[in-house]
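haha ok so turns out i had the wrong file open the whole time. this is the CORRECT one, sorry everyone. sequence first:
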Amino acid sequence: MVVVLLGPPGVGKGTQAVRLVDELSAAHVSTGDLLRAARRDGTELGKIAQGFMDRGELVPDELILDLVKEHLAGIDASTDVMFDGFPRTTDQATGLDGVLEASGRKVDSVVLFEAPDDVLIKRLSGRRSCPDCGAVFNTYFSPPAAEGVCDRCGGALVHRADDEPETVQRRLQVYLDQTAPLIAFYEEHPAMMTSIAADRDVDQIYGEFRSAVTAGDGADS
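then structure:
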């Protein structure tokens, strides 16, 4: 089973994905993680990708797809695969279909997580992280006991530049511009597409998400 997860920044799809991946013993594939691993390990593809990033250029779709293909080759064919935040464009989606077909796979399910912009902006702009231990808090939803201080290690919390409200709004607009055609692509795709309202209780979201993914896979619901 191959699942594609779509959704804007801050919608919580990564959190939900990790939970279901653990339950199903599936492979969680994030192209950001693949790029970081390739750069860290100094692979040939990683070195090529690093060159683009050093020049401030986007890594081409072809290279991203090569990374995905290389990664899939190391995953047993019987293992479920969950793509988190990839593909981002219709060109990447078409390329992914080709990569999967070459390995005897196909996209079986697409899950779109959705939430109102005001919720997403609060989730992202209210985020505070600890550079020492990696803990993450939110001034609106899960604030630290003492403002600006990490509950876990006592370190000073920071507000990342890309979580500033103006930057968040730009990120959401970029997502909308890129993803609207992608949603249309998958609405006409043979894979089953499900939309989930992600501004609710996390367990409620997870129950609906799990049901959507496992509905055609024979897994217990």
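The domain at 2-26+80-214 is CATH 3.40.50.300 (Rossmann fold).
again sry for the mixup
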